Amino acid sequence: MALTDHRSGVPDNWYVDPVLLGVPGVRQTPSEDDNALAWQSDALCAQTDPEAFFPEKGGSTRDAKKICGSCEVRAECLEYALQNDERFGIWGGLSERERRKLRKHA
């Protein structure tokens, strides 16, 4: 017979995986989705001001595109944006309009 914590009524040997509970700070094991997005940790945009990548309508995209130009994961970023139909921002060095044109020609 298991001992019980009389304050909570829960047996002392009762265990619930904190990952399953979604306890903050407890890392889940990587899933396929996590691995598919692993490139994001190497993205230069993650180390810069995100506002540059989401300019206001008519705003300059030059700074964001310059950063993308030297990013090692530019191709993965663009592929993600195309597969997920990202409508806003600079992804893989292309604006939403440029990605739309790319889709039309593909």
Automatic annotation (TrEMBL):
GO molecular function, one term: metal ion binding
The UniProt record lists the keyword Zinc-finger: no
Location(s) in or outside the cell: Cytoplasm
Cellular component, GO, one term: cytoplasm
Residues binding [4Fe-4S] cluster, per UniProt: 45, 68, 71, 77
Annotated keywords: 4Fe-4S, Cytoplasm, Disulfide bond, DNA-binding, Iron, Iron-sulfur, Metal-binding, Transcription, Transcription regulation
Mod. after translation: The Fe-S cluster can be nitrosylated by nitric oxide (NO).
Pfam families assigned to the protein according to its UniProt record, in alphabetical order: Whib
Record text on cofactor binding: Binds 1 [4Fe-4S] cluster per subunit. Following nitrosylation of the [4Fe-4S] cluster binds 1 [4Fe-8(NO)] cluster per subunit.
Cofactor(s) of this protein: [4Fe-4S] cluster
GO BP term, pick one: cell redox homeostasis
Chain's role: Acts as a transcriptional regulator. Probably redox-responsive. The apo- but not holo-form probably binds DNA.
Protein family per UniProt: Belongs to the WhiB family.
PANTHER family associated with the record: TRANSCRIPTIONAL REGULATOR WHIB, TRANSCRIPTIONAL REGULATOR WHID-RELATED
Official protein name in the record: Transcriptional regulator WhiB
